[in-house]
Write a structure and sequence with these properties.
This protein is an alpha+beta fold and 174 residues long. The protein has one domain: Beta Barrel (M1 Pyruvate Kinase, Domain 3), CATH 2.40.33. It is built from five helices and eleven strands. The chain has a seven-stranded mixed barrel. A three-stranded antiparallel beta sheet has the order 4-3-10. The two termini are 20 Å apart. This is Mosc domain-containing protein. GO terms for molecular function: catalytic activity; molybdenum ion binding; pyridoxal phosphate binding.
Length: 174
């Protein structure tokens, strides 16, 4: 069962658009994104139009892509900055959460990009369908994050809180 806590399994940056992702044991999360990442530096493919400082993806989704579709999205091929396990990323949308020494807020869903389809094939769209491509987050408070750090929700998404209350009361959760 997924909770409102999780753990960082992997961290990645890419210095420029199209360049391979670089794995890190720890990295500084600064205003605007991860130190040394293309989107913080304004050199990412979508930098001019996107406004996505940091991206997160669920490790379980990457596992499913391998098992169900034969897609190997390991070692940063997924093009996301932070791989987490144990938390439902949907609950992080509009929520504030701590990650290592930093605090972030989930802002929007992140569908797979065309560059990813070029790397692994069009079936990546099927593998990451239905909100499984990850999420974007903005930096609320900078700090260092590392592999193994806990992700903990500190201010839940108001819609999620309403669903939990309704479920406890036996009401409609939609």
């Amino acid at each position: 069962m997924k909770t409102e806590t999780g753990r960082v399994e992997e961290l990645y940056t890419a210095p420029s658009k199209g360049s391979p992702m670089v794995a890190h044991d720890a990295v500084e999360l600064c205003d605007g994104g991860l130190a040394g990442d293309r989107y913080r530096d304004g050199t990412g493919y979508y930098s001019a139009t996107d406004g996505c400082a940091v991206t997160l993806v669920d490790a379980a989704v990457l596992d499913d892509a391998r098992t169900e579709f034969g897609l190997d999205l390991s070692e940063g091929v997924h093009r996301r900055n932070i791989v987490v396990r144990g938390v439902d990323l949907d609950t992080l949308l509009d929520a504030t959460f701590d990650l290592g020494e930093a605090t972030l807020r989930g802002t929007k869903l992140r569908p797979p990009c065309a560059h990813l389809a070029d790397l692994v094939g069009d079936e990546v769209g099927d593998a990451l369908r239905e909100k499984r491509g990850g999420i974007c987050a903005e930096v609320v408070a900078p700090g260092r994050i590392g592999v193994g750090d806990e992700l903990r929700v500190v201010e839940a998404n108001p819609r999620e809180m309403g669903r939990h209350i309704a479920a406890r009361l036996g009401g409609d959760t939609e």
